[in-house]
Task: inverse folding
C-alpha cells in the first residue's frame, strides 16, 4: 500500500509519500497565498525524486485550519485522485501533531475569530485515541495534567493569555503514514465523495 498524504491547513504544510505504513519522503512547505501556485510543482518534485513510486491512495487533511489553504489542498487532492482513479481519504489535520511521548495531550491552533481549535487525545504504548476537535474559548478549559502542543505555541499563549509551556511540534510523518495506509487498506472513499471541511474563518 502506497499513498500521497497532503496537508495545507496551516503554516506547517507538508507532503508525505507513505509506503507500507512508513514515510519514505517528507517535504515541508510554507503555507500562505503562494501555495496555490507552488503545490502542484512540489508534488511533481516529490514524484520526480521517487520515479518508481505509484500511489494507491491519496489522503488529505481537511482542517480545522486556513480557509484558503484547505481549499487549495482539497482541490488538488480531488483532482489527482480523480485523474489517477485511486481512493481519496480524509483526516483531521490536528492529528498530524501527535506528540512522541505517551501522554494525555491537547493539540491547539489559533482559531482567529476567537479562542483555539483543540484536539484532545491519549497516547499510550498500545496506540492513540482522539476525541472530536472543538473550539476552546478559555484557558480555564485546559486541565493541569495534559500536555499542550501546537505548531505555533507563541500564538496560542497570546490568544489564551497563558504563560504555561506549550510544546512546539512538527507533523508526525510516521504516525500519519501508518494510520493512512491502514485505513486505505481497509476502507476507502471514491474520488467523488464529498469531503467535510473545517475552516478557521
Result:
Amino acid at each position: 500500500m502506497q499513498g500521497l498524504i497532503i496537508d495545507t491547513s496551516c503554516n506547517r504544510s507538508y507532503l508525505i509519500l507513505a509506503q507500507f505504513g512508513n514515510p519514505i519522503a517528507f517535504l515541508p512547505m510554507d503555507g500562505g497565498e503562494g501555495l496555490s501556485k507552488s503545490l502542484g510543482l512540489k508534488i511533481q518534485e516529490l514524484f520526480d525524486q521517487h520515479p518508481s513510486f505509484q500511489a494507491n491512495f491519496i489522503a488529505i487533511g481537511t482542517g480545522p485550519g486556513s480557509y484558503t489553504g484547505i481549499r487549495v489542498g482539497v482541490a488538488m487532492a480531488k483532482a489527482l485522485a480523480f485523474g489517477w482513479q485511486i481512493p481519496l481519504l480524509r483526516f483531521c489535520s490536528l492529528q498530524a501533531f501527535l506528540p512522541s511521548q505517551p501522554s494525555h495531550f491537547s493539540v491547539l491552533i489559533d482559531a482567529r475569530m476567537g479562542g483555539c481549535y483543540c484536539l484532545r487525545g491519549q497516547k499510550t504504548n498500545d496506540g492513540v485515541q482522539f476525541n472530536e476537535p472543538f473550539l476552546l474559548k478559555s484557558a480555564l478549559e485546559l486541565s493541569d495534567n495534559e500536555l499542550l502542543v501546537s505548531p505555533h505555541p507563541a500564538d496560542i499563549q497570546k490568544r489564551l493569555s497563558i504563560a504555561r509551556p506549550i510544546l512546539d511540534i512538527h507533523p508526525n510523518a510516521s504516525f500519519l503514514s501508518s494510520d493512512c495506509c491502514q485505513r486505505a487498506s481497509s476502507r476507502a472513499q471514491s474520488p467523488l465523495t464529498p469531503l467535510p471541511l473545517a475552516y478557521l474563518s
